[in-house]
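QA checklist item 7 of 12: single-chain prediction sanity check.
[x] sequence parsed
[x] length recorded as 197
[x] structure emitted
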Amino acid sequence: MFYKVKLKDHVRVSPNKFGMELRQAVITEIKNKFSGYISKELGLVIDVSNVEDIGEGIIIPGDGASYYNTTFNLLTFEPEMHEVTRGKIKDIADFGVFFSLGPIDGMIHISQTMNDYVSFSKEKVLQGKESKRALKVNDKCRARIIAVSYKDIANPKLGLTMRQAGLGKDDWIEQDLKEGDKKAKKIKPAEENKIKK
C-alpha cells in the first residue's frame, strides 16, 4: 500500500549547493538520502512529495555544510499481508512468475498461478491443462500478497498468489464475472425457493 509519511530531520546541505535556491537544495539532499531507502517501518521510499517547513540554518564548526531542521513528506510503498494488488508479469520461469508491482517485484510460485495443472513452455508461457488459460510476459494481473520478508533489508521478498476468486489475469476475472452472471440468470424460481429455505 502507498503511504504519505511526514518526517522531521536535520538536512545537511553541502557547500557545493549553496548557489542553489534553498528549497531546491534541501529537496535534492533529501532525495539523495532517502530515494530507494528501505526499512521495515517505512517500507520502500519512492519519492519526496513535498517540503513543508525549512527551519533556520546552522553551521557546525569544522564542517563546511549548513544544517536545516526540515519537515517533509515522503511517498512510500509498504507491502502488507493479504493486500490485493495489480501489476504485470515481468518474467516467467519453470518454477513461477516474477510479478512487478511497480516499485518492487514479487514472486508467484507456479502452483499459485491458477487453479489448474500448469505446464511451462520454452516461449515463457504458463498454460492450464484443463482451462487452457495462458500467462505471458507483460500480462496485467491481480494478485494477493501472502508473504513479506525483510530478512535481507536491502532486498525484501514478496510471495503472491493468483489462485483465489477475483485474482489472476484481467481477462480471466472478466470471463469469470460474465460466467457468474449467466449462472445466476439460469436459476429457476423453484430452485430459488429451495435456496431461500
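[x] summary fact logged: Residues 170-186 form the longest helix (17 residues).
[ ] second reviewer sign-off
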